[in-house]
């Protein structure tokens, strides 16, 4: 980052999977933060001149030789420090306390309740003595003797020093993870630390994030050229508009239109980019290529693999035609980054091969620009609004890369895509009319390869079944069904059957995730 912030918090990363969530909570408290790996934290500390430091969790054990430590310069700086999990353990050990390994049966994992045993500034306005609160634990080792100056202010059966405080030095530390949603008050604890203990005003905003990213992109790219693949979705659009603000016409966008988009969507993308933003855009109409290749394919993974590979082939050949681009821009979000890393450290099972341009940079020997890498979906939306993208565009539900192909179990044909597009448009129209669009994470229609008998007028019909799906979610990893009232479903079903030729029955999908996935394929 090249922009100076008069108020910032440094997050020292010891390798936890959820360090970015700490940064997110700090941003939510209106404070700018940067994450620095422990090995370069001292340099970041001198450069940033932060108002406070947070030490993250991590997979190592402080009882092992060579495990990472917080820089002494930070411990001696006189600034407030918050240690989380591993951060608590290394802080304790470095300041003269004791940490013991969990051994085979030690440790606490998952939901736990801590009892508040004393007051401290972290709890101000939040937790009181004698109360019990839910937190998320994930630790093997634990603190067994406090460093001088500390006292315990909360405990759990597995961690007598669940939260510890040294008010004089403004050092606080906890065994649990306040940054994850399963610690319901965790965001408030972090906000108390950065605002109340570190004294930050909390007036940092997405506008500043935008300015910092623009400066960063300019520094990274220089006078080189960048190409960006647009999927039609929010993430790649926000990345493209941000990069265009930074480097103007050094950016060319390529929109590979696979013909599997929703009603009117391809036109929207083209008019937004060409018309509104005047961003150089190559619109590749490749419907015939995609539908041709999908003919006869019914296996979901085969569909996904064909679409992913063809997308890359088309994109690559367009990029070569444009020529001279050194950088490839992608709208990768933080959940994409974590999903690709296994939480357990072991191999994770592939449920679906997600479609993205992974592998392309190596194949084309290009460098990556990924300005959204540390953001979550709702933050990307806020950034999109900051960049002036229309609300209806920015607020759109997520849409999968393989598009309608994975919402048409069985063979995908142009005719079936058209039928599905019409049903989907009616469903979304009804949802918008009912004022429910923003309350739902994702809603879409699925066209089933099943025909049933019906009666319309005096005639017999024998047509396809359409399934409607709507879910709530915070990140797409887990989801609950949206509980429409029956009059909404009746109205929508009637409209779809009356207005869409080829569908004579509508059903509603009541499956949460897990055990279902959001998409049907
Ligand atoms: P599932 O179906 O795995 O979907 O529960 C979780 C979220 O991911 C979206 N999704 C995709 N997004 N490429 C994408 O960019 C894909 O191949 C893909 N498959 C699923 C899905 O719409 C939901 O939001």
**What is the helix content?**
25-40%
Oligomer state of the chains in this structure: single chain
* Bulk shape: globular
Q: Which class of the largest domain in CATH terms?
A: Alpha Beta
From the alpha-carbon coordinates, what is the Rg to the nearest angstrom? 26 Å
Record the strand order, biggest sheet: 2-1-3-4-11-10-9-6-7
- For the report, how would you describe the main beta sheet? 9 strands, mixed
Q: Helix count, per DSSP?
A: 16
Mean pLDDT: 91
Supply the helix-strand structural class: alpha/beta
Secondary structure: number of strands: 20
CATH A-level architecture of the largest domain? 3-Layer(aba) Sandwich
Annotated CATH homologous superfamily of the largest domain: Class I glutamine amidotransferase (GATase) domain
CATH topology of the largest domain: Rossmann fold
Domain module count: 3
Query: Terminal Cα separation, in Å?
Result: 40 Å
Hetero compounds? xanthosine-5'-monophosphate
Low-confidence stretches: 341-348
Beta-strand content: 15-25%
């Amino acid at each position: 980052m090249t922009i100076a912030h008069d108020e910032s918090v440094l997050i020292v990363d010891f390798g936890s999977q959820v360090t970015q969530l700490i940064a997110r909570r700090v941003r939510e408290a209106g404070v700018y933060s940067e994450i620095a790996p422990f090995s370069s934290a001292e340099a970041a500390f001198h450069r940033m001149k932060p108002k406070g430091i947070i030490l993250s969790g991590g997979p190592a054990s402080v009882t092992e030789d060579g495990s990472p430590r917080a820089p002494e310069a930070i411990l001696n700086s006189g600034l407030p420090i918050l240690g989380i999990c591993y951060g608590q353990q290394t802080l304790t050990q470095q300041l003269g306390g004791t940490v013991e390994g969990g051994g085979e049966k030690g440790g606490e994992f998952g939901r736990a309740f801590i009892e508040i045993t004393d007051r401290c500034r972290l709890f101000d306005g939040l937790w009181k003595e004698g109360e019990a609160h839910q937190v998320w634990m994930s630790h093997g080792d634990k603190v067994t003797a406090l460093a001088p100056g500390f006292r315990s202010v909360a405990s759990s059966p597995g961690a007598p020093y669940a939260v510890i405080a040294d008010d004089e030095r403004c050092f606080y530390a906890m065994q649990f993870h306040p940054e994850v949603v399963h610690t319901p008050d965790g965001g408030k604890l972090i906000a108390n630390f950065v605002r109340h203990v570190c004294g930050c005003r909390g007036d940092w905003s997405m506008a500043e994030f935008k300015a910092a990213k623009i400066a960063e992109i300019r520094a990274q790219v220089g006078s080189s050229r960048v190409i960006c693949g647009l999927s039609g979705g929010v993430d790649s659009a926000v990345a493209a508009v941000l990069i265009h603000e930074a480097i103007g016409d050094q950016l060319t966008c390529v929109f590979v239109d696979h013909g599997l988009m929703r009603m009117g969507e391809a036109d929207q993308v083209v008019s937004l980019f060409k018309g509104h933003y005047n961003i150089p855009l190559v619109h590749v109409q490749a419907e015939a290529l995609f539908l041709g290749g999908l003919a006869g394919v019914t296996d979901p993974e085969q569909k996904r693999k064909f679409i992913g590979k063809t997308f890359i082939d088309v994109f690559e050949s367009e990029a070569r035609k444009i020529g001279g681009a050194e950088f490839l821009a992608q709208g990768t979000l933080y959940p994409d980054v974590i999903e690709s890393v296994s939480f357990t450290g072991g191999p994770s099972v592939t449920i679906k091969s997600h479609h993205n341009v992974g592998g392309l940079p190596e194949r084309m020997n290009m460098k990556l620009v990924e300005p959204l890498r540390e953001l979550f979906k709702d933050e990307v939306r806020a950034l999109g609004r900051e960049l002036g993208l229309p609300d209806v565009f920015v607020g759109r539900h997520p849409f999968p890369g393989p598009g309608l192909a994975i919402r048409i179990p069985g063979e995908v044909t142009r005719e079936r895509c058209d039928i599905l597009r019409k049903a989907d448009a009616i469903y979304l129209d009804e949802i918008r009319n009912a004022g429910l669009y923003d309350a739902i994470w994702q809603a879409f229609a699925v066209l089933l390869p099943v025909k049933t008998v019906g009666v319309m007028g005096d005639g017999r019909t024998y047509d396809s079944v359409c399934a409607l799906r709507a879910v709530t979610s915070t990140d797409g990893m887990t989801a609950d069904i949206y509980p429409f009232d029956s009059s909404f479903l009746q109205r929508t079903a009637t409209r779809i059957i009356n207005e869409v030729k080829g569908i004579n029955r509508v059903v509603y999908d009541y499956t949460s995730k897990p055990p279902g996935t959001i998409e049907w394929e």
